[in-house]
Design goal:
heterodimer, A: 236 residues, alpha/beta, 2 domains, nine-stranded mixed beta sheet, globular, B: 245 residues, mainly alpha, MetI-like fold, 10 helices
């Protein structure tokens, strides 16, 4: 099980007819069980890259090799729930074979038990994000894509959700790719950290993290962040 | 309660108008009711109502199914929209009478011709409404369904139909009122039964109580269908929406 990404270039034609290059060259590989974290400035083309990896966009130069038959799950930047289906139905529709026990376990971890019958319109953004996470984990993916799942949440909630993500990622051997612009998220969750340049996005550094995720103390996280900041600075 | 009051006011106005105009031009409610009861007892009322309702049901189902499919296609595909648009504009602006007369000339005074003519009249409004609905579909939910590998049936039922439901309800509502009107014309011109045929007979005999008895029975059935089928469907389709303040 291995994900190999080699996107040489990707450009859009904007509304005024100009070609704009969004991705200038990104190549990396991830093994099963690894969490790759992609960090880059806002608008650098991270989401575009994720759309290519998710198979939503095939108009690019390059090659992406995914494990055959790999089950995909994605947490989008916005929750993208079906507003006309309850929280439970939203999860079950993505994962129709899930057992009641497993669903209860996921809802328990994400503290959604009380919201099973609610409609997405009745939830706060933080809760809706958690439902989107629950949906992604419920499908038991082989390849999980998380597109800034913690953006625009307050720090306390983001920290809790980050722990929940770490816990869920540890519970299954899968390839995980997380996009964020928080160095903190990257240092706490990543096994490999990919630093991207501003638009058009190029891979600047691929930084492997040696300390296992569960054993990262605050000092270790601070050291990783300092290392990332130094590399980031040296290139920009 | 307010509805009943409003209805009572209508009856009172009718009764006063009948007294003023004289029963030859406008018979009072009681006379019309007596005719309706007599027609109902003989079974004729139900026969004609049944024939009309069957035509409405067939033509409505046909045009809604075809119109929804075409409208969806035109809303999703630019090519289909380009190809279909001139036809749509032609059909939208073609008078109902022209379609009915041509249908009877080409296909004879048959049931098929009548139902086809009614369906063709309603078709373009359904297409236009559903095309708007298909254009308003949320692409981010399409992507979600694709990423999570929803099969076609699940996409249709849980992603597309809930988004299209308000448009389908609107098309059904406006389409039904159109069909109610056109079916009578089609029956008047070329069918040996149905409310439209009876109204034609009453017109030739200048039998105003008979005319009113059939028209009002028909109107009552329309109201009941609106209240029992169309409105609850609309309510159910928008159940998930937060209620407007």
């Amino acid at each position: 099980m291995r994900l190999e990404v080699d996107i040489r270039s990707k450009s859009f034609t904007s509304a005024n007819g100009k070609r704009q290059e969004v991705i200038g060259g990104i190549a990396f590989a991830l093994q099963r069980g690894e969490v790759g974290v992609v960090v880059g400035p806002s608008g650098c083309g991270k989401s575009t890259m994720l759309r290519i990896l998710a198979g939503l966009d095939s108009d690019y130069q390059g090659h992406v090799a995914q494990p055959a038959g790999a089950r995909l799950a994605m947490v989008f930047q916005e929750p993208r729930l079906l507003p006309w289906r309850s929280v439970e139905d939203n999860v079950r529709l993505a994962a129709p074979d899930i057992t009641d026990n497993r669903l209860a376990a996921i809802f328990d971890v994400l503290e959604l038990e009380a919201h099973r019958t609610h409609f997405p319109g009745e939830l706060s953004l933080g809760l809706a994000r958690r439902v989107a996470l629950a949906r992604a984990f419920a499908v038991e993916p082989d390849f999980l894509i998380l597109d800034e799942p913690l953006a625009s949440l307050d720090d306390a909630l983001a920290a809790r959700l980050r722990e929940e993500i770490a816990m869920l990622v540890a519970s299954r051997p899968m390839i995980t790719l997380l996009v964020t612009h928080s160095m903190d998220d990257a240092a706490r969750l990543g096994d490999r950290i990919f630093l991207l340049s501003s638009r058009p996005a190029r891979l600047l550094h691929a930084v492997p993290i040696d300390v296992p995720r569960a054993q990262r103390s605050n000092d270790a996280v601070a050291a990783i962040k300092a290392d990332l900041a130094r590399r980031d600075f040296s290139m920009s | 309660m307010l509805r009943l009051l409003s209805f009572a006011l209508l009856l009172a106005t009718w009764w006063v108008a009948a007294t003023v105009a004289g029963s030859a031009k406008l018979p009072p409610p009681a006379v019309v009711l007596a005719v309706a009861v007599a027609e109902a007892k003989s079974g004729a009322l139900f026969l004609h109502l049944g024939a009309t309702l069957a035509r409405v049901a067939l033509a409505f189902t046909l045009s809604m199914a075809l119109g929804s499919a075409l409208g969806y296609l035109m809303g999703r595909s630019r090519l289909a929209n380009r190809l279909g648009d001139p036809w749509l504009i032609l059909l939208l602006n073609l008078p109902a009478l022209v379609v009915i007369v041509l249908a009877y000339i080409w296909a004879g005074l048959t049931e098929v011709a009548a139902i086809a003519a009614i369906a063709i009249n309603k078709l373009p409004t359904a297409v236009v409404t559903l095309r708007e609905g298909a254009r308003a579909l949320d692409p981010s939910l399409d992507e979600m369904a694709k990423v999570f590998a929803f099969p076609r049936g699940r996409i249709l039922r849980h992603v597309l139909l809930p988004q299209l439901a308000p448009y389908i309800a609107a098309a059904a509502r406006s389409g039904l009122s159109l069909v109610w009107k056109i079916v009578l014309v089609a029956e008047l011109l070329g069918r040996p039964n149905g409310i439209g045929f009876e109204i034609g007979v009453a017109f030739q005999l200048f039998d105003i109580p008979l005319l009113l008895a059939y028209s009002l029975s028909f109107a009552a059935v329309v109201l009941v269908i609106e209240a029992v089928i169309v409105q609850p469907f609309e309510l159910r389709a928008s159940r998930w929406r937060l209620r407007a303040a």
